[in-house]
Amino acid sequence: MSAEVVTIIRNVRLSNGPAKFVLWLLADLANEAHQCAPSVASLSETTQFARRTVQNALARLESSGIVSIERRGRQTSVYTIHLDIAAQHVHHNGTRETGEHGER
């Protein structure tokens, strides 16, 4: 994970702790194109969250635009982290965290 990715992901403010943890894990697994393809089962095992919690976290990340998901049928989905959108969710001094859809 590059220093740029670490800085942005560390400072992203989400209203959901599991979503932040799943985002960290996706970033850790991602290649230079900010993509990875772990299974929900492996994300669940690594985070120790229930599969449903991981699925909900992924849905939150997708609805926020931080992560896009390419569903490939029976193969694992490909997750792409969009750092430009993640940067819009970064907490700056004097501002509150951004909600799921950008509302404050």
Short characterization:
The protein contains 5 helices and 3 strands; from the N terminus they run ααβααββα. It is of the alpha+beta class. It has one domain (about 5-85): Orthogonal Bundle (Arc Repressor Mutant, subunit A).
Describe this structure in words.
By secondary structure, this protein is of the alpha+beta class. It has a single domain (3-87), classed as Orthogonal Bundle (Arc Repressor Mutant, subunit A). Helix content is 47%, strand content 14%. The chain has helices spanning 3-11, 17-29, 40-47, 51-64, 83-87; strands at residues 35-36, 67-72, 75-81. It has a three-stranded antiparallel β-sheet. Strand 2 and strand 3 (75-81) form a beta hairpin. The longest helix has 14 residues, at 51-64. It is globular, with a radius of gyration of 13 Å. It starts with a helix and ends in a 17-residue tail after the last helix. The model is unreliable at 94-104 (pLDDT under 50).
CATH homologous superfamily name? Winged helix-like DNA-binding domain superfamily/Winged helix DNA-binding domain
Q: What is the spatial order of strands in the main beta sheet?
A: 1-3-2
What is the C-level CATH assignment? Mainly Alpha
- What structural class do you assign from the helix and strand content? alpha+beta
Beta fraction of the residues?
5-15%
Number of strands: 3
User: What is the overall pLDDT average?
Assistant: 87
**Helix tally?**
5
How far apart are the first and last residues' alpha carbons, in Å? 29 Å
Q: Shape from CA axes?
A: globular
What name does the CATH topology carry? Arc Repressor Mutant, subunit A
Helical residue percent band: 40-55%
Give the low-confidence spans.
Answer: 94-104
How many structurally independent domains?
1
CA-atom Rg in angstroms: 13 Å
CATH architecture: Orthogonal Bundle
The ordered string of helix (H) and strand (E) elements is HHEHHEEH
- Largest sheet composition: 3 strands, antiparallel
